[in-house]
Design goal:
- By secondary structure, the chain is of the alpha/beta class.
- The protein has a single domain (3-136, 187-260), classed as Alpha/Beta hydrolase fold, catalytic domain (Rossmann fold, 3-Layer(aba) Sandwich).
- 37% of the residues lie in helices and 22% in strands.
- Helix 2 crosses helix 3.
- It is globular, with a radius of gyration of 17 Å.
Length: 261
């Protein structure tokens, strides 16, 4: 059953939809991608895995996504990060395992670095990152946009970008681009104090596999595993990809269990 948490104050207040499955700790927490939702294929597969293993599993929709309130066009990385941190505070008091897909991998990594720096006892026990779109607003959008699209964003405040996954274009706002610059990670070492497993398709046209390598290079001293899937696309939602995802979760859980024993 969907539950709700309030994030923000005054005119900025919005209700965030959460699905929380009770079970063994630490909980696994899903961070979805850009314009995705908590009932998408990979999240549903993880929920089925969690149910079969009596594992706590938490998923939520960012504002402007799925069942949550708000307009997608109002979204920024900072806004969606605030919501993710609020969900963790409300539903994941134990050190969680964060699973992030595409944009969700960036937000999950931002959450992990913040928790590791501010309150080490709540730093994630591990991260699983699928096609990690770290810094995508700058590296994969702004830097790749031709001059006319940049001019449109600067002049009109928004560019409606055609999508491979929807009949409706995505609004790419000036606020999204500018706020993204406040959350960039790839210019310095990234310390999460957590083991990380990255799943990356080599036929991903949205997040090139070379981008994942750039991310790995910024993870000094971390226990990092990168799985490159030669015929994998961006979504990595085929049965064999979902099997890789659940096996990655099981591997991190075994590591956590061993550390606690």
């Amino acid at each position: 059953m969907t539950s709700w948490i309030e994030v923000g104050q005054g005119r900025d207040a919005r209700r965030i939809a959460v699905l929380a499955r009770e079970g063994a700790q630490p909980p696994v927490v899903w961070f979805g991608g850009f314009r995705s939702d908590m009932r998408a294929t990979k999240a549903e597969a993880l929920d089925a895995w969690a149910a079969a293993n009596s594992r706590a599993f938490i998923r939520f929709d960012y504002s402007g996504h799925g069942e949550s309130e708000g307009s997608f066009a109002d979204g920024t990385i900072s806004r969606w990060l605030e919501e993710g941190l609020a969900v963790l505070a409300a539903h994941a008091p134990a050190r969680p395992i964060l699973v992030g897909s595409s944009m969700g991998a960036w937000i999950a990594t931002l959450a992990a670095t913040r928790l590791a720096a501010e309150c080490g006892e709540r730093a994630p026990a591990g991260l699983i990152l699928i096609a990690p779109a770290i810094d995508f607003t700058e590296r994969l959008m702004w830097d790749a946009f031709p001059a006319d699209i940049r001019a449109t964003i600067e002049r009109d405040g928004v560019y409606h970008r055609p999508s491979l996954y929807s009949d409706e274009p995505y609004p790419i706002t000036r606020a999204l681009i500018e706020d993204g610059r406040n959350n960039l990670l790839l210019g310095a070492p990234i310390r999460t104090n957590s083991p990380i497993h990255i799943l990356q398709g080599m036929r991903d046209v949205d997040v090139p596999w070379e981008h994942a390598l750039s991310f790995v290079e910024r993870l000094p001293g971390e226990n990092v595993q990168l799985t490159l899937i030669k015929d994998g696309d961006h979504r990595l939602s085929r049965p064999e990809d979902l099997d890789r995802l659940t096996r990655a979760a099981e591997a991190i859980l075994r590591r956590v269990t061993a550390e606690l024993s």
